[in-house]
């Protein structure tokens, strides 16, 4: 075990544990009510919020990498790596509900009314995360969350408005990435002829198919026609908008 010197990095100081581990104040304690499970309820939410902070940290780095004028190959894999980390954190976070489910509804009722009107609905990081990913006010089902927030939190959410989102950064990067068109290579043209060749082969297979009855043959050929016409609409804005 290494000796501690005053200026050496020390575990609990480095992690500011005195702040984190002293940050749980059950309302039931204040009310003098025995509610053992409130501590679990508080720590689960705090753990979520810490992980929201980590996800946001990864997300901001990905947005800034993708928002550069030119994104280097290795930066693309950094983005993929960090998005994968975000996805792993979200998956693990959902697992945290299995721990919370060890709290029975009755145990929850011991302290639930003491928390009213507080709710995850007021989670600033959750809202900012939604916005930074690309959820705009217009696309929201329920826009009333701001009314449930105190002014200092409202300000934090409003600060996220108008910033480039992951959705926008990704779209701009895709539009700028020259893999669609080079002198020798026209992606859409190649793509169209490859798919048309597949349909042609399917038709030939059906025409030669020994077992199919005439009726079955007609039905299958019709469905290829349908699939091909909706595929071709990708290349014709008018038909495409009509289909939308
Ligand atoms: C016993 C456990 C929980 C119960 C009973 C519960 C209950 C609710 C309810 C009823 C809502 C709807 C809004 C409202 O009426 O206030 C809500 C929203 C929400 N809760 Fe929870 N919650 C629980 C645990 C959690 C945890 C652990 C988190 C993690 C941070 C969380 C985050 C959220 C968020 C972000 C919303 C807003 C969802 C949205 O509007 O899209 N909740 N919760």
Model description:
By secondary structure, this protein is mostly helical. The protein folds into two domains: 12-172, Methane Monooxygenase Hydroxylase, Chain G, domain 1; 180-243, Methane Monooxygenase Hydroxylase, Chain G, domain 1 (Up-down Bundle). 64% of the residues lie in helices and 0% in strands. It has 13 helices and no strands. The chain has helices at residues 11-14, 17-20, 27-31, 38-66, 73-100, 105-109, 112-115, 124-133, 151-159, 166-176, 187-208, 214-232, 237-243. α4 (38-66) packs antiparallel against α5 (73-100) and α4 (38-66) packs parallel to α10 (166-176). It binds protoporphyrin IX containing FE (HEM).
Quick structural summary:
With 244 residues, the protein is an all-alpha fold. It has helices spanning 11-14, 17-20, 27-31, 38-66, 73-100, 105-109, 112-115, 124-133, 151-159, 166-176, 187-208, 214-232, 237-243.
Q: Any idea what the CATH architecture of the largest domain is?
A: Up-down Bundle
- The gross shape turns out to be elongated
Bound molecules: protoporphyrin IX containing FE
CATH class of the largest domain: Mainly Alpha
Here the CATH topology of the largest domain equals: Methane Monooxygenase Hydroxylase, Chain G, domain 1
Poorly predicted sequence stretches spanning 5 or more consecutive residues: none
- The averaged pLDDT comes out at 92
Domain module count: 2
Structural class: mainly alpha
The major beta sheet can be summarized as:
none
Features:
244 residues; mainly alpha; Methane Monooxygenase Hydroxylase, Chain G, domain 1; binds protoporphyrin IX containing FE
């Amino acid at each position: 075990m290494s000796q501690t010197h005053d200026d050496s990095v020390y575990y609990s100081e480095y992690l500011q544990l005195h702040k984190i581990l002293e940050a749980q104040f059950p309302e039931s304690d204040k009310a003098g009510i025995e509610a053992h499970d409130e501590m679990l309820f508080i720590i689960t939410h705090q753990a979520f919020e810490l992980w929201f902070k980590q996800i946001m940290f990864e997300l901001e780095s990905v947005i800034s990498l993708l928002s550069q004028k030119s994104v280097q190959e290795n930066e693309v894999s950094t983005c993929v790596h960090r998005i994968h980390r975000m996805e792993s954190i979200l998956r693990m976070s959902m697992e945290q509900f299995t721990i919370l489910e060890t709290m029975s509804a009755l145990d929850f009722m011991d302290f639930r009314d003491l928390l009213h009107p507080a709710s995850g609905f007021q989670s600033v990081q959750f809202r900012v995360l939604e916005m930074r990913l690309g959820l705009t006010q217009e696309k929201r089902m329920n826009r009333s969350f701001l009314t449930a927030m105190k002014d200092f939190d409202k300000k934090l959410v409003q600060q996220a408005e108008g910033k480039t989102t992951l959705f926008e950064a990704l779209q701009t990067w895709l539009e700028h990435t020259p893999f669609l068109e080079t002198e020798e290579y026209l992606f859409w043209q190649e793509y169209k002829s490859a798919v048309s060749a597949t349909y042609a082969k399917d038709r030939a297979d059906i025409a030669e198919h020994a077992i199919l009855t005439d009726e079955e043959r007609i039905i299958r050929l019709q469905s290829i026609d349908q699939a091909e016409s909706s595929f071709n609409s990708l290349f014709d804005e008018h038909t495409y908008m009509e289909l939308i």
